[in-house]
Design brief:
The structure holds 2 protein chains of 2 kinds. Helix content of chain A is 75%, strand content 0%. Chain A has helices spanning 2-22, 24-28, 30-42, 45-51, 54-77, 79-87, 104-134, 143-172, 174-195, 204-210, 214-234, 250-256, 263-275, 278-300, 309-323, 325-331, 345-359, 361-373, 380-402, 408-411, 413-436, 448-464. Chain B has helices at 43-50, 72-78, 94-105, 110-120, 136-148, 166-181, 193-199, 217-222, 227-237, and strands spanning 3-14, 17-28, 32-36, 58-63, 66-67, 80-82, 154-158, 185-190, 202-207, 210-216. In chain B, the strands form 2 sheets. In chain B, strands 6-7-8-3-9-10 form a 6-stranded mixed β-sheet, sandwiched between helices. A 4-stranded antiparallel β-sheet of chain B has the order 2-1-4-5, with helices on one face. In chain B, β4 (58-63) and β5 form a beta hairpin. Classes of the chains: A mainly alpha, B alpha/beta.
């Protein structure tokens, strides 16, 4: 009974956290939006199949749900920190073992089950339901979506169990974690070298999707259950002392950033990124991995695109993804830290955008690298201009729509829709221009004008709003 | 005497909820003024409006001669503020946060001043620790330090002693009393009546967003009344 009560309250809590941030109606519409995207996207499958083998597409979708599980698990573990930044002194049931007569393991077990059920309803079910409803129209047997529902759920759970397992080990000993990761990589590599079986096949949920058998299902469940069980057994809230000491870096950095409009704010941004681990982590997981995937997908389209088309398309999409670097700068910051100081919202927005400008070196370096490696160096200049113009324009749209809380974009369908339309129109025009001739893409610099106007109106809008955390 | 803080019919509504209802009060230079009231009476909302953190729905407020709606940044430049929740930036160390405040407020000799505060509030051993790893008491010390680092002539403090141990409470109370005696003004909001009775010169009682009373502790003492009895009677009536 206690377990059930705890579970239902955790579900309610998760819902209220999300609906408080994004609004009840907006958040309730999120699964509907996922359903709609999956439903409409399914009709593109016959086109995709002509250039991309179905197996590769399945690999990508399973990889995305694995990543979703990892992200959800990681957010759950840093939830307290994130909630405190969003709501002030927040408290979640997951962290209340000391005030309730329930063991930490019981709470953790409920937390795991809650995440599984909640995100299944929020992501997995709407996605597969959209595909299932569309399947009769695209000549896909109904058994396939049902199998996909099973394997995507297992893929999501694999990510969740993996991150819980690794974080529990991390809490006990960093050396043990390093050793474990090394063993996993060596073990997997040895298996691959010995059998020459594709690494993707060695991923159990995908293997199950490709060839269903009860044995594989059992093996997949074991791969998920064992790390979960170990995580629950080893779980402790008595972490090893993580108090770190740092020598002062703010003043030297402030001097180095003296050319910025607000040097101490820029210095703080860089310190936040470095010490939170976001700079490396986000660059790899939110930038390089998705873009690597994109490059792979676009390369397949090379035969049907005009010369330089792949590079131009990649530059545009890199620009869109590069604009999300803004969320790196706001994720570990809240306006409540500034309430006692003479700092206004426009000052903070300006500073974040300047830091953003510096971080655009990352997409710029990527475009330079890809242009050279892919033999498209002749179009490097227009590709670079295109990427940066799109990135700054998308940033301006984000600032206008979400101010200092860009994470709202993810779950608020209304905001997301306006964002997609604003960005989509510009992208379609730029793709058309770049496909006529790559050098026409230089016209994308014109985007800086609407970007400037959007930022200006964003200042007025967000300065007039009472900021969360105040 | 010079009035340094004045509210006229100040009102704040959140939808149908009236957090602060038509409050008027004035605080003179050199006062140690206590805004008293039970939890949820509107004290924090008052401080937020007076420091330009939120906009009033109605009424006017001036702080050190500046309109808090027209010039909130000007107000925050001049005053010291300790908010109710101690939220220094998580990934800066204690000393870096004070450096940050020094840079933003353009304070000379910030390190010398910070050293004095580390010594006075006895948390020098935490200077290189990330703010997220500090205890609530140490965070409160840090927030206290940042509020006084630029020697403001007016400080607004929401629950000044809530996370301090008794020894530190004594030290801070003495500091505040001396600060006011030197011609500066302190405006505190608290529901701990002992603090107000001990150190405040003037006080106001807020209940359910309405101002019930303004007066001085000396006047109460002259009538042989205790602040807590007076407060309870008034609040129970109101």
């Amino acid at each position: 009974m206690t377990m059930l009560k705890l579970f239902t309250n955790m579900i309610k809590e998760e819902w209220r956290v999300h609906s408080t941030i994004f609004g009840s109606l907006s958040f309730a519409l999120f699964p509907v939006m996922i359903f709609g995207i999956a439903f409409m996207g399914s009709f593109l499958l016959p086109i995709f199949r002509t250039v991309l083998p179905a197996g590769d597409l399945a690999t990508i979708i399973h990889a995305l749900f694995l990543l979703l599980g990892i992200m959800v698990g990681a957010f759950g573990l840093i939830g307290m920190e994130a909630m405190n930044r969003r709501f002030g002194q927040a408290s979640l049931l997951a962290y209340s073992a000391r005030s309730l007569p329930i063991s930490e393991r019981t709470i953790f077990l409920n937390f795991v089950v809650k995440d599984t059920v909640y995100y299944f309803i929020l992501w997995v079910f709407p996605f597969v339901a959209g595909f299932a409803i569309a399947s009769p129209f695209i000549a896909v047997p109904l058994a396939l979506p049902l199998l996909l529902m099973l394997t995507l759920t297992l893929s999501f759970l694999t990510g969740l169990s993996l991150i819980f397992f690794l974080s529990t080990i991390y809490a006990r000993s960093k050396q043990m974690l390093t050793l474990l990761l090394a063993l996993i990589i060596i073990g997997w590599a040895t298996l691959y070298l010995a059998t020459r079986i594709s690494i993707a096949i060695l991923y159990p949920p995908l293997a199950l999707f490709r060839a269903f058998s009860w044995g594989t299902l059992l093996a997949t469940c074991a791969v998920i259950a064992i790390p979960f069980t170990v995580a629950i057994v080893l779980f402790t809230s008595e972490y090893t002392d993580t108090t770190k000491r740092f020598s002062s870096a703010l003043t030297p950095l402030t001097r180095r950033f003296s050319f910025f409009p607000y040097p101490p704010l820029a210095a703080k941004d860089l310190i936040d990124l470095h010490r939170s681990g976001s700079l490396i982590g986000q660059t790899i997981f939110s930038f390089l991995i998705p873009l690597g995937l994109l490059w792979f997908l676009l390369s397949v389209l090379a035969q049907v695109l005009p010369p330089g088309g792949v590079l131009m398309l990649f530059a545009i999409l890199t620009g869109v993804i590069a604009s999300t670097i803004y969320t790196w700068l706001t994720a570990f910051d809240t306006f409540s830290s500034y309430t006692s100081l003479p700092i206004s919202v426009p000052m903070l927005l300006t500073s974040k955008m300047c830091s953003f400008a510096v971080l655009q070196l990352i997409p710029a370096a990527l475009i330079i690298g890809v242009s050279v490696v892919s033999g498209g160096a002749a179009f490097l200049f227009p590709a670079l201009i295109l990427c940066l113009s799109v990135s700054f324009y998308a940033l301006a749209v984000t600032v206008r729509l979400t101010g200092l809380s860009p994470s709202v974009l993810v779950y608020d369908p209304k905001v997301l829709l306006i964002y997609l339309i604003s960005i989509g129109i510009a992208i379609i025009i730029l793709i058309a221009l770049a496909f006529i001739h790559p050098w026409y893409a230089v016209a994308s610099v014109l985007l800086f004008l609407p970007a400037w106007l959007l930022v200006k109106s964003g200042y007025a809008k967000w300065d007039a709003e009472e900021q969360q955390g105040f | 005497m010079t009035v340094v803080l004045e509210a006229k019919n100040l009102t704040k509504k959140y939808g149908d909820v009236i957090a602060v209802d038509n409050v008027s009060l004035a605080v003179e230079k050199g006062a140690l003024f206590g805004l008293l009231g039970p939890n949820g009476s509107g004290k924090t909302t008052m401080i937020k409006m007076l420091t330009g953190q939120i906009r009033p729905t109605g009424g006017l407020a001036t702080v050190l001669g500046l309109d808090v709606v027209q010039n909130p940044i000007g107000v925050r430049e001049r005053v010291g503020i300790i908010p109710e929740q101690e939220t220094p930036p998580s990934f800066l160390t204690a000393v870096e946060y004070l450096d940050f405040v020094g840079e933003v407020r353009k304070i000379h000799d910030v390190q010398k001043k910070a050293d004095w505060w580390f010594d006075f509030l006895e948390f020098g051993d935490k200077r290189d620790v990330l703010c997220k790893d500090l205890s609530r008491g140490t965070r409160q010390k840090l927030m206290f330090t940042q509020a006084f680092l630029h020697n403001p002539t007016l400080a607004l403090i929401d629950e000044p002693l809530i996370n301090f141990d008794p020894i530190m409470q004594r030290k801070v109370k003495d500091y505040l009393a001396d600060y006011a005696k030197n011609g500066n003004t302190i405006f505190i909001s608290t529901h701990i009546l002992g603090i107000a009775e001990e150190i405040c010169t003037g006080f106001a009682i807020l209940h359910k967003g309405k101002l019930l009373h303004t007066g001085t502790v000396a006047a109460l003492t002259a009538q042989d009344q205790h602040l807590d009895d007076f407060f309870l009677t008034l609040v129970q009536k109101g």
